[in-house]
Structure formats: structure tokens, C-alpha cells
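Pilot study result, target chain (208 residues):
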Amino acid sequence: MKRFILLLAVITLTACTTTPPHEFVADPDEKWEQRKSELSEINDWLLNGRIAIINGDESWHMSMKWQRHDDKYILDLSGPFGAGHAQLTGTKNGVVLVDSDQNYFFADNPDRLLQEVTGLRMPVQSLLYWMRGLPDWDVKNKNQKLDNYGRLALLEQAGWRIRFKRYINVDKHELPQKIFIDGFDLKVKIFVDDWDLKSKTFASSKEN
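Predicted structure:
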């Protein structure tokens, strides 16, 4: 009896942690059009994750906390620069970067600002779309491929090659959990540990 109870507990635990299989999608292109509309409506999120940037023999590893609410976002990066922290706050009026020494820098483009201050090249502006599994609407697509479930599998934009390696169920959406990005002699690997689409306020105390 004890063995039976133990076996039943193991089976139950396995059933709770196993990812359910995907439903069959007859027309991935039609499903993609539906997904685009739904994902475009996501304007509030809080995600935690990790980033690895590889340039030849050099590599940097950072933790990431990214909050967005409407037209404003706060991206916290803890990594190799300075004492290990930089914060980007973006609004429709521009971007402010605060480094670990509390120095403030301003620009109208987050990609250029991050590279000038920290030396790291990362397509922050386009990632506001890619993190949701969408193409950047402001950049022309060179190539785009869907998987069998109507989700982005491959995207080429602005000199970057983006591969969506894994998706995760978040509320009613499927959002990227693992994204590999190649371009400009760089490899960027992004891993999302958790998503929160119900967050409506910024948790950071450095809000500008």
C-alpha cells in the first residue's frame, strides 16, 4: 500500500509539472494574424531574466529586470560594467541611463546610449517588440518564418537574426522564454525566468 501511495504521488506530481501538448493549428498564417493582434495589446509587463552577450572570446553575463507600462519602461541590467548595474528609463521623450555611480546620461535612442556609456551593444528598441514575439513594426523584415503553431520562429531585421527557441504560457498568451540573437559579430542569448502581465506600477525606486 505504501508503494502504491508513493507511486500515485509521483504520477500526480509529474502530471502537474508536465507542459500540456499544443493544439493542432490547421493554418499557422491565420493563427499568426490572430496572435499579432493579441500580442500588440500587451503594454504592461514585468519580466525577470538573464542575458549572455558573446563577442569572439569575450562574454558578458547579466541579470535583467524589465518593466513596462504604456509608453514608459525601466530596464535594469546587473552585469560587468562599473560596479555591476545600469538602468535605462525610456519614455516617448527619450531615454535616461543611470550607471552604478549615479551618473545620468540622456539620448533619444536606447541602443546608442547603452553602447556609448557601457560599451555593450544590444537592440533595446527592437526588443520592446521581440520580447513579445513580434517583429519591430518600425523596421523592415528581411526574413520571417513561423513554426507549426503560428508563432515567430525566425526573424531578420536591421542586421540582426533572431531565433525564438522556446515559448512559455503566460495567462492566455504564449510569450518567448528563450531568444537567440546574432548580428554585428555578436551573439546575444536571452532567457526569461518569469513574466507578469498584471503589473501596473513600477517597482524601482530610481524612477525618473
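One observation from the pilot: Confidence is low (pLDDT under 50) at residues 1-20, 204-208. A full batch analysis is planned for the follow-on phase.
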